[in-house]
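Standup notes, structure subgroup. Blocker cleared on the serine input:
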Amino acid sequence: MTAQELREKYLDFFKSKGHTVIPSASLVPRETDTSTLFTTAGMHPLVPYLLGEEHPGGRRVTSVQKCVRTGDIDDVGDNRHLTFFEMMGNWSFGDYFKKEAIEWSFEFLTGKEWLGLDPNRLYVTTFKGENGIPRDETAIEVWKETFAKAGMDVAIAGENEIIKDKVRIIPLGTEDNFWIAGATGPCGGDTEMFYDTRPEDGPMDGKKFGDLVDSFRLIEIWNDVFMEFNKTIDGKYEKLVKPNVDTGMGVERTLAVLNGKENVFETELFQPIFRKIEELSKIEYGDKSDDEYVKADQQCWVDTRKQFRIIADHIKAATFMIADGVAPLNVGRGYVLRRIIRRAVRYGKLIGIEKNFTKEIAKVVISLHKDFYAELENNENIIFEELEKEEGKFKNTLEKGLKEFSKLSSITAAEAFNLYQSYGFPLEMTAELAKEKGMEVDKEEFETEFKKHQDLSRTASAGAFKGGLQSTGEMEMKYHTATHLLLAALREILGPETYQKGSNITAERLRFDFNYPEKLNPEQLEKIEDLVNQKIQEGISVEMTEMPKSEALKMAKVSFDPAKYGDIVKVYKIGDFSIELCGGPHVQNLSELGRFKIKKEEASSAGVRRIKAVLE
Ligand code: SER
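Run returned:
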């Protein structure tokens, strides 16, 4: 079965069950949704409807949604993790519930005219009950009946998750079988469906369910979430007026299972990309199974295959992101994009690709997906342009940065920061390089160091380890620009000998230290505040120019040690009011800032004053 046939079958099946087919939403979540940087699941664009708003398509909808999840980025390269993937799903907005959802899942999976999978190879998990929420007896009962109709008398696993005799239903806890998209929102217990990809390995009797999943013998293909609660910001689970169903089935994994591949990368969705990488690198991907490679202990072959997979996955994700309007940046979504392109470029270099290659891979990705996702072809030029630009930019510094890195025998946070600032190495890449060399990376130390330097938003620095939130990144960017305004205002009101002694930005406020011999009086503070607000009201654009460092140092102020900068630096100019050498990022226009208000002025140390200010 091809990917396109699978997508069509899914939508047709749920259409036949009264669902309205809706198109995939953008990878960029709607403006009001600041819970994640990217659309991470089919339910993501549907949250308002899961919370009770009326959907124009009615109470049953179905879609194939493009998704990006960066949480698993380090696992990409094994047999099932991807940064970009497609999720088929069906939803009930307060309409049908557990019984129909489970019965239809089973029918679609095993029905001869649908996927025709063998019910004997199917294993399902259910929510075992935890945190005051009871075990899902209904789901268990419905599964038992559903299997029974197919002539299978199935049993339930105990706490030990051991598969024996007729065990087909495995109740698990919150960690595995309770689903929520982010920190808050609609959520509930779920039931997940797994398929045995290697029955030839013999009976599973006596084996633990979790071990079978870890060894990739059982692979999860579908998740039916029974949304009964809304988790609020203060951590409470409020019962939804009407419960919903949210299901998600991975196109790539299901395709692998249907075609007897034990690996998403062996499917038609990746093989043509690998052929292209082979052509570019003159290295073969290899066609052995995961197991054979691991058994043969051909470490270098395993690694080369992993490199192919990472390049394919990352450039595919980048292609879809750019088509949805994301551009490489040092903050938020743009940072994730930058980070995956740069990681792919580094891997390309590792397997010996000399020429620029990301565009070539994007071409294959577009040809593979354009029939279902027209936005790819429509945005072809911008996709090529952005990839070329980012690849070119990074290739200039990659070699030098790697040389610099190779001199290190251990890595401090300051060195990691220098690799970022001077050579554009995303922090995660430095961490990866360090790990390859067996060096320890202290993430907390990195975080402190990055905070000290201030010129990065938290998302772009250590916060990105945790997948930082868009709203945080955006607020920090605003405070960053406000900090430039504040310094310029201080120099105008207190004198040109005023300079920065320290700065600290959070999503809530800015804190700025500067040299001044005495406490500022209320009039001075008022003048500073007014001047900043006057500039904001003028709606001046913030302009960035890249230029040689020697030239920049002649005209601009420096936020921190110029030795930390590369030869080509960024200069941020706000009209003729402020001009600073700085890594960015900044807002595009001051009108985005709102009202500037000084909250506090106090001593920081001898001869150093500290201002805390907010944007309202
Ligand atoms: N939201 C659930 C998931 O992503 C089901 O779609 O697994």
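Discussed briefly. DSSP finds 20 helices and 20 strands in the chain.
Next: hand off to the docking folks.
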